[in-house]
Design brief:
The chain has 145 residues and is mainly α. The chain has 8 helices and no strands. It is 79% helix and 0% strand. Helix 4 runs antiparallel to helix 5, helix 4 packs parallel to helix 6 and helix 5 packs antiparallel against helix 6.
């Protein structure tokens, strides 16, 4: 009788231990798969969008500098801001992202033909980018001191 009582006690205690009852648990309700599912194709698409954004930003920086080439101080300012942006890209995303940005900035500054009619837009876009990222402005002012 005592042995049966022990078996019943041990069985009832073990039944309340979470790892013992895992096999008996029902699977939890599924979340909305459309909201949580990510596929490798989606990752590639997001990576491509990021790289295209770096290309565009680099070209904008280069074109803005090229538009201001008659004003040496403005070119130095844009160059300092672009280098600060590259520094932040290295810190946040690695050297590949920074290299892509700097490469396209170089193309914009000297390698590609510039449409003079769009100069105001390139300068406005670059100025807006710098305003949205105060860390670039802070570094630029520190370098001047």
């Amino acid at each position: 009788m005592r042995q049966w009582l022990r078996v019943i006690i041990v069985t009832s205690v073990l039944a309340n231990v979470p790892w013992m009852s895992l096999a008996e648990e029902k699977t939890p309700p599924q979340k909305d798969k459309a909201a949580t599912a990510t596929t490798p194709d989606e990752w590639v698409h997001e990576d491509t969008k990021f790289q295209e954004s770096l290309n565009s930003l680099g070209l904008t920086a280069g074109y803005a500098g090229k538009c201001k080439e008659k004003n040496a101080e403005a070119v130095e300012q844009i160059t300092a801001q672009a280098l600060a942006a590259a520094d932040q890209l290295v810190r946040l995303f690695g050297t590949d992202a920074a290299f892509r940005f700097v490469f396209y900035a170089g193309l914009g500054a000297g390698g590609l033909k510039l449409d003079d009619a769009k100069c105001a837009q390139y300068i406005a876009n670059w100025t807006e980018f710098v305003k949205e990222h105060p860390e670039l402005k802070a570094r630029e002012t520190r370098e001047k001191k």
